[in-house]
Amino acid sequence: MVNIENDLRKILPQMFFLTIQIQRDQEGFNQKKSHKYIRRGDKMVFKHDYDDVPVIKVVFWGPSMAGKTTALTIYKVLKSLEDPKQVYKFLKVEDPTGRTLFFDQAIFGLGTNPQTRKSRYKYHIFTVPGQERHSGQRKVILQGAHGLVIVIDASKNQYEYNKESIAELNILLKDKFVNGGISFVFCLNKMDLPKEERISVADLGKLLVETGWSSNLRDSLSRVVETSCLNARDDLTKILQEKNLDELKDEKGYLKRDLRPESVQRIVKPIEMVLREILVKKLQEVGN
Ligand SMILES: Nc1nc2c(ncn2[C@@H]2O[C@H](COP(=O)(O)OP(=O)(O)OP(=O)(O)O)[C@@H](O)[C@H]2O)c(=O)[nH]1
Ligand SMILES: [Mg+2]
User: Fold this and answer.
1) How far apart are CA 127 and CA 60, in angstroms?
2) At what angle do helices 229-240 and 262-287 cross, to 10 degrees?
3) Any domain includes 35
4) What is the pLDDT of residue 17?
5) With a 6 A CB cut-off, is 263 part of the ligand 1 pocket?
6) N or C: which end of the chain has fewer CB within 10 A?
7) CA gyration radius for the chain?
8) Does the beta carbon of 130 sit less than 6 angstroms from any atom of ligand 1?
9) How far apart are CA 251 and CA 227, in angstroms?
């Protein structure tokens, strides 16, 4: 019999290796605050895979070209360098222009059970295809999600597409996001664009208040991480091309986590925030 509470207590402290301090850190996100979003009595059910490992489902949502596939690819490359044994699957399905056709997916492990040597948990990340014509697929992919990473395109000329994408999600989720049925974090991506070509984090904060994702600006900002997949990809490529790559690895031959460039850490952070909130919620459920 698996002791879920013990498993969770072991995983939670291990999960957060946020060794690089993000300058404009969203300190507002802490365990105490996240409780506000947790609806008691709304039980969270994890499906189990063929190894009987519980699986957390996370969906990357957002309009076409926002950077969902790019962000997941960067995350997968990083995990393969840092912890390859916890990377189970990675699949991209794209059309000839690089737009996702059905979905991308990747499965990662979390923690290791010393007795079975299997992961204690797995998390299965899907990206939705953002193009308008794929709305039916988005609805199917969203089903059963425990958490969402919502990727917003900071380009000014994509503002209306972001709004439409959020509105579609509002309809599909009904009130789930307001009272804590689902964990979510927003990525404001493409922050490498020149200032005059992109929206600011405050602009996104206001949009989230307007669309009901948050009751006030401060709360909405605590759930936004500014990212640039472009910078993260470049920084990760530099590491891979490093002449002294071996010096960046630990005794097991894996890339040291505290060497993550800040741009890459920003891609990891939303995923960790969502996973942490889901696990805290589960811990509360089993503790009650
Ligand atoms: N400048 C800039 N470009 C980016 C960034 N992230 C992604 N891109 C580019 O944006 C384009 C679309 O990226 P994708 O990751 O395929 O977008 P997506 O959200 O998966 O799009 P769909 O699959 O159609 O839903 C690609 O050309 C990327 O190189 C970023 O942070 N900055
Ligand atoms: Mg895609």
Assistant:
1) 5
2) 110
3) no
4) 41
5) no
6) N
7) 18
8) yes
9) 31
Two structure tokens written together for 63: 């309009």
pLDDT tens digits, one per residue of 57-84: 999 999 999 999 999 999 999 999 999 9
What are the tens digits of pLDDT across the range 120-156? 999 999 999 988 888 899 999 999 999 999 999 999 9
Q: How much distance in Å is there from the Cα of 92 to the middle of ligand 2? A: 8
Ligand 1 site, residue 73, Cβ cutoff 6 A: no
Distance 155 CA to ligand 2 centre (A): 17
Position 255 in a domain: yes
What does the pLDDT average to over 250-266? 91
Task: Give the H/E segment covering residue 85.
Answer: none
Work out which ligand 1 atom sits closest to the CA atom of 63: 25
Domain containing 241: what range? 4-18+42-287
Q: Does residue 136 fall inside a structural domain?
A: yes
Question: Structural domain tally of the chain?
Answer: 1
For the record, the structure tokens of 50 come out as: 């063929």
The answer to whether 232 and 261 have CB atoms below 8 angstroms apart is yes
Task: Specify the CATH number for the domain of residue 108.
Answer: 3.40.50.300
What is the position in ligand 1's atom list of the atom closest to the CA of 100?
23
Ligand 2 centroid – CA 229 distance (Å): 13
Give the tens place of pLDDT for each residue, 159-197.
999 999 999 999 998 766 655 678 999 999 999 999 999
Cα–Cα nearest to 277, from 180, 172, 204, 166: 180
Residue 37 forms part of a structural domain: no
| C-alpha dihedral sign at 31, 29, 54, 51 | negative
Ligand 1 geometric centre to CA of 190 (Å): 8
**pTM for the model:** 0.87
